[in-house]
Amino acid sequence: MRLPFFSPYAPLPLDGFLEHAEKVKECAWAFQQAIECFFSKRCERFGEYLQEVNRLENEADEIKINIRRIISKRTKMQVDKFQLFMYIQEQDKVLDCVEHCLSWLSYRPETDLPPELHKGIFQLVDAVITPIEELSAMVRETRAYFETFSERQQRVVKEIIRNLHVCEHEADKLEDMVKFNIFTKVSDPIVILHMIGLAERIGEIANHAENTGDMMRAIIERD
Amino acid sequence: MDLYLVIILLLATLAVVDLVVGVSNDAVNFLTSAIGSRVAPFRVIMIIASLGILAGVTFSSGMMEVARKGIFQPQLFTMPELITIFLAVMLTDVLLLDLFNTFGLPTSTTVSIVFELLGGAVAVSLIKIAASAQGLDQLINYINTAKALAIISGILISVAVAFVAGMVCQFFARLLFTFDYQPRITRYGGLWGGLAMSTITYFILIKGAKGASFLTPEMVQWIATHSGSILAVSFLSFALAFQALALVARINVFKPIVLAGTFALAMAFAANDLVNFIGVPLAALAAYRVAAASSDPLHVTMAALQGKIHTDTLLLLASGGIMVLTLWTSKKARSVTKTSVELSRQEEGMERFGSSILSRAIVGMCTALTDLTTERLPQRVRRVLARRLDPERVPAQTATAAEPPPAFDLVRASVNLIVASALVAFATSLKLPLSTTYVTFMVAMGTSLADQAWGRESAVYRVTGVLAVIGGWFVTAIVAFTLGALFATVIATFHLAGIAGLLLLDGFLVARSFRYHHRQQEESARIANLNLKNGVTPEQAVDTSFAQVALFLHEVSTSIHASLDALFSEDRPRLRELRERSKRVQQIANTIIANIFKTLYLLEKHDVETTTKYSRTIATIQEISESHRDIVMRAYSHVTNFHTGLHQDQKQELQRVRVLTSRLLENTAIMLKRNKKVDFDYIGSQQQKMAEFLEQCNRNQIRRIQGGRSKIRLSILYYGLLESCQKITGHTEKLLEIFRDHFGAGSRPVADHGQEPR
Question: What is the pTM of this model?
C-alpha cells in the first residue's frame, strides 16, 4: 500500500491504452462478423467489414502515435517507459494480425470449404476474440490499480492475465483441431493451404493477446 | 516556548484551511435564495455576497470571545492545556467540515466549533482531574455547561420554528401574490418591499451593531431601545420608495429585495461565523502572549483571557479576503448550495435522495392530515385557495428557452430571506443562540412545502433529503464532541508524536475526500451532460437518445463484467463498490428515459406509428436496467451473506454467458452510436449461440443438483444470473429492431453525443 497523493511521477497513459484496447475489441468484432459473413455465402458485406477493420486499424494507429508522443515527453513515470512502449506495440500487433487474417481471406474469395468445417473456424474465432475482449477490462482494472495501489486490485488484474493464458490455451487446442479436420476432410491442396494459413493466423491473434497480458504483468509487477 | 510558537503558526495555517472549508459549507446560507431564483447573473450574485462578507468581517471583532471563554473557564487552565484543546479543535473542525462539504450537506459551523471546544475541554479537564486525584464532580467547574445546553436547545427550537414560520409566511405570501405574481407587483409591491427591506435593515443593525468596532456602546444601546421606531420608519420609507419604483419605473421589486437579503445574510455570516474559523487560533495567540509575559509561562493560569481582547482589523480583512476567494473558487461550496436548491426545487425531476421508511411514514401522515383538513374547510374557502395557490397558473416556459426555469420564483426567494433574517434578528435580540445554517435551511424547506414543491412525485425523496441534512446536524454535534475529546487526549498523551500523527491523518483524509469529491463531480457532470438540451429538433432528439442508449449499454456491459468477476473471486469490497456504481447506471437509464419523454413531446406532430415504435425503447431500457441491477444485487447479497462460492465449472459457464452478453451489448452499442447498419445475421448467430449455451448450462446445473453438488442458494443464484443475462440479450435485440424500424437500418450519420465512459 502506497500513498498516492504525494507521487512525483506523471500519470501513466492508461486512458490511451484503454482507448486503444477498445478499438482492438471493436476490430475483433468486425473481424468475427467478417468471418461469419465470408463463410455464409449469401453475405455480400465482406468488403465492408474489411474496410471497417482497416479504418479501425488506422484510428488505433493514431491513438498509438499519440500515446508514444506522451510517453516520449521528458517526464518521470513510475513504470519503465520501455515497458509501456512494448505494451502498446504488442496490443497493436493484435490488430495487425486481425487485418492480416482478413487480407489473407480476401486473396481467395471463392474458397470452397465443406460446411461441417465452418463451425470449427467460427469456434476458433470465438476463442481468440474472448481474450481480446478481456484486454480492455485488464487496462480498466490496471487504471484502477494505479489509482489505489491496493494489492486487491493488483490481484484482479493478475486474474485477468491468468484468464488470457487460459483463453490462449483453448484457442491453441481449437486451432489444432481445425487444422486436423482440414487435412482429413479437404482434398483440394489450395483450399488446404488457404485454410491452414487462416487457422494459423487466427491462432496468432490469441498469442499476441496473451503476450499483451504478460506485458501488463511486467508493468504492474515492476511498480 | 519556541515549540508553542511553532504550534501557534500551525494553528494559523489550520485557520486558513478552516476558513476555506467553513465558507464552502456556510455559503449555502446566503446563496440558496439568489441562485435558486436566478435573481441576477451568477457573477452579480457572487459580487453582492462578496461585498456582504467584506462588510461583515469588520463587524466581527466582538465575537471572538466565544472561543476564549464561552465554553470553558480559562482561569482553570494553563497555556499548554489550552493549546492542546485549541489544536484538537482545529484539527477536528477541518476534518468534520470537509466531510460535510464532500457530501454536499449543509451543517452549522457554530455547532461544530462549540462541540469541539466542549469535547476538547472535557478531555483535558478529565486528564487534569485524574492527575490531581479530584472527584469527577469537579468537571462541572471547568465547563460552561449552560452555554452547551443553550446551543442544543437552540438547535431543536430553531429547526421547528424556522420550518413552521417559513411554511406559514410562504402560504400567505403566495395567497397574496399567487404563482403568477408579475401583475400583482404594482398592487402589493410597495407593501412587500417595505416589509422586506425594513426586516432586512433591522437584521443588519441588530446583527451588525453588536460587534461593530466603529459603533459606541451608547449607539448600540440606542438601536436596541429604538427598535420599534427604526422598524416603523424604515417600513414607511421603503414602502413608499418601492411602490413608486413599481408604478413608475415598472421595476420588479423582488429583485432588489432578494439581492439586499443576500447581502445582509452574507454580512451576518461573516460577522458571526468568522469566529468559528479564526477565533480559536486567535485565542491560542492570546494565551501564548499572556504566558510569554509571565515569569512561569508553562504554569500560569489563563485568567487574563476573561478580559476583552481587541482583534486587528487588518487580520479580519485578510480573513474576509480568503472567504471571498473561497466563495468564488470552491467547488464544494457549489455542491452544498446545490443540495439546498435541489431540495426546494419547484419542478419535478431527478431526485438526489432515495426513499426511506421514515420519509414514507411522514409523507403518509402528512397526506392524510392534509386530506382531513381540506375536507373540513368550507367549499368557498377551498375554491379560493385552489384558485390562488394553483402552481399551474404560472406562465408556461417555452421549450426553446436557452436555460431551464429557475428552481423557484422570486416570491419564494424573498420570503426565504425575510423570514430567515427576521428569525435570526429576533433570536439575537433575545440573546437566544441559534444557527444561521439551520434557520435558513429549514425556512427554505418550509417555504417549498407551502409552495407544493414537494408534490406526490417528489415528497418522499425530498423528506429523505431533509431528514439526512437534519440527521447530519446531530451527527455534527456528536462527532465534533467525540473527535475533539479524542484528539485532545491523543495530543495530551503523545505530545509531538500525537500532533504529527493527527496532522498526517487530517492531510490524508482531506486529500482523500478531495479526490472523492472530484470523482463525484465528474460523474454528476457526465450524467448532467446526458440531459437533452432545449431547442433540439425531433430528429436530433431521436439521434441523441440512440447515441445515449449506446453509452448506457456500454455501462451495463462493463458493470456486469466487473460484478461477475467480483462474484467469482468473492470480492466483497468490490461488490459493494459495484452496487454503488449500479446506481449510476440506473441514473443514466432514468435520464435517457426522461429524454425519451421529452422527445415524445417533440414528436407529437409526427405520425403515431413512428412515435409508438420509438416509445418502446423506454420499456426495453427499463428491463435492461432492472436485469443489470438484479445481477449486481444477487452477486452482492450472495457474497456479503457468506454463502458458498460458485463451483469452478459454474464459474466457467457464467464466464461464457458473460462474454456472449457483453459481446451483444457492446456490438449493439457500436451500431447505435455509429448509426451502423445492423448485421442481423451476426446478431442472430450470437443469440443462437447464447440460447444453445444457456440450454447446455441448464442441463449441467440439473446434473449438479441431482448429484448434490449445488446447494439451494447457489442454484438460485446461478439460475437468477442466467435469467437476467438472457433478459438483457433479448431486450438488446429488441432495441436493435426498434433502431432498424426507426432509421430503416440506419442512414443518417450520428454525432457522438455520449461521452466515452471511463
Answer: 0.68
Domains of chain A: 12-222 (1.20.58.220)
Instruction: Using a CB–CB cutoff of 8 Å, tell me whether B262 touches chain A.
Output: no
Q: Where are the domains of chain B?
A: 2-516, 537-743
Nearest CA in chain B to A3: B508
Which CATH code of 3.30.1330.60, 3.40.50.1220, 3.90.190.20, 1.20.58.220 fits the domain covering B537-743?
1.20.58.220
Question: Three-state secondary structure along chain A?
Answer: CCCHHHCCCECCCHHHHHHHHHHHHHHHHHHHHHHHHHHCCCCCCHHHHHHHHHHHHHHHHHHHHHHHHHHHCCCCECCCHHHHHHHHHHHHHHHHHHHHHHHHHHCCCCCCCCHHHHHHHHHHHHHHHHHHHHHHHHHHHHHHHHHHCCHHHHHHHHHHHHHHHHHHHHHHHHHHHHHHHHHHHCCCHHHHHHHHHHHHHHHHHHHHHHHHHHHHHHHHHHC
> Which among B561, B663, B689 has CB closest to A29?
B663
Q: Name which of A133, A134, A136 to mutate to probe chain B: the one with the most chain B Cβ atoms within 10 A of its Cβ.
A: A133
ipTM of the complex: 0.81
Walking along chain B (758 residues) 10 residues at a time, the average pLDDT comes out as: 85 90 82 87 90 80 57 83 92 92 84 87 89 76 73 76 90 86 82 86 71 69 81 88 84 87 84 80 87 82 71 81 88 79 73 79 84 82 81 58 71 88 74 76 87 79 86 88 94 92 92 86 77 72 82 91 91 90 87 82 67 79 93 94 89 91 89 78 84 92 87 90 93 82 49 38
